Fold these 2 entries.
Entry 1:
Amino acid sequence: MNQCNLCQKKIYPQFLLGDLLSWKPLFDLTICHKCLANFEQINARKACAQCGRSQTNNRFCLDCRRWRIKYHEDVIINHSLFVYNQAMHDYFHNFKMIGDYRLRLVFKQMIGDFLRSKHYDSYIFIPTSLDHLKARRFDPVVALYGDLIKPTVKVQYIGDSIEQSQKNRWERLKRSQNFSLSFSAIKKLRKVKRILLLDDIYTTGATLYSLRETLRNLNITANLFSFTLAR
Ligand SMILES: [Zn+2]
Ligand SMILES: [Zn+2]
């Protein structure tokens, strides 16, 4: 019998006929039904078809229409599991700010279900800035997804290493991007068709689109998708 990773109570699986017929592993539940009820799952039919924002239909939201114009429809298709509601806000506060590392396991089963249901050629974890890493002692993205999937290449965050005003012209040019990739990573990604970017929360999409810019500047033309726990 598993324990709920949020309330620590024993989980009694509620068997649904569909679960039994789908041969889904029933004993890797990581959150109990009572705790899960505090989170709002996103229904894809009632979410923006581009960023996965929960709404009343699946038309592109206003933000996404702007991204579509800016990037001539070469956009990122995002999938998120949950709405960033109060319960999710509290979850991330305890996980990232208080630094309760065990909380990485709460949604492991549901994240795993999604990752197993789709195929991508390459996986990239959105890197945490060094300042955040020092403050938290662990990378929340690696903590959430690292047990389930191995990133194909490593991307480094270089955005906050030097203040803009302190940079000379060469520094500014070199660091006009927030991310850097090794030569072998670039070579690898140029050959693939579908890349999944993994982050913890999709807020404005700015971080993902910033990485998109880096990839496109490096002539990496693969279709870009993203996955985040919350939107
Ligand atoms: Zn619980
Ligand atoms: Zn949208």
Note: Residues 23 and 43 are 23 Å apart (CA to CA).
Entry 2:
Amino acid sequence: MAYSKEQLVEMYKIMQRCRLFDKKIATESKKGKLVGMFHFGTNQEAFEAGLMPLIGPDDYIKPYHRNHGCLSLCDMKLYVAGMLERTTGYNMGIGGDYHQQDIHGLHILPIDGLIAEDWLHDTGVAMALKLQKKPGVVFSCNGDGGAQMGNLYSAMNFASLFSLPMVFVIINNGVAMTTPTEKECKCSEISGRAAGFNVKGVSVWGQDPIAVREAFEAAIDSARQGQPALVEVMTYRKCGHYFGDPKEYETAEREARMTEKYPDPIPRFEKVLQEMGVCTEEELKGYAKEIKNEIAEAFEWAYQQPKITGDMTKGADKVFSNTEGGKL
Ligand SMILES: Cc1ncc(C[n+]2csc(CCOP(=O)(O)OP(=O)(O)O)c2C)c(N)n1
Ligand SMILES: [Mg+2]
């Protein structure tokens, strides 16, 4: 499908927003202004650029821990405030970075601290939509490591059996924490397993936002017709598992091979946009600058916001709460 300039620029901006947001976290952490464990998505940004623009107001998404792309659905200031544990941010600041969620407003479902538990929770949301005859598709995202867990297979079976509006998403970035994918399983592409559940599975090269988007468009069409789908985005985690991880477990040979197979999606897309005559180099620089400023402003604002105190985190109603601080 041919995309408009507006759509192509939106995809580019999403990639830059993810990359620059992670860079800002790195800078602030080095200054000692941020504490906590942050998982970056360096080199995986075409995934967010391909998927996020397709998520409509009726849909639900459960991001994963390496997923600042969900930012494109959020108010940047509230997101940063939530991340910095400020009471005016999402989840009243209780969620931190990992557990940003907004179930009722933005339909961003909670990420379970235990990897792969949420394949099942998210399938339950799809079941609820079906029972309530509500429109919308549920996107459940996890990594290749999360895809080795049995919950995915229970979830796919259930979604298929009940014809749920469900898209399973695997971000296969070649590693799970310190374990290369080839030591996790014998399949180079995990999507083939979907066929065993009559789920429509596909693997897509994850460095091209257009290819990723097309794969998700087909998956969404299928899910809306009651045929659950699975999209495996093939990419490479260029960064460490967490910010500060020296990645000593990666060999130079593998790093070089994977980088060649999965090159940086941002300069690649910049070249594509220029060759297509969609944007000039100047325009692209302008978008990046605009985003950098937006991020800097959001951090400045968030630093001024009141910090949560210990007593604010107590109480069962605080475990899952929406932006208004209400109960589920
Ligand atoms: C059940 C469980 N086991 C282990 C962990 C620790 N852990 C957090 S992220 C992660 C790696 C997950 O790898 P993958 O799903 O491939 O995602 P990636 O980090 O590569 O994006 C692990 C093992 C956890 N959170 N939950
Ligand atoms: Mg992984």
Note: The domain at 5-305 is CATH 3.40.50.970 (Rossmann fold).
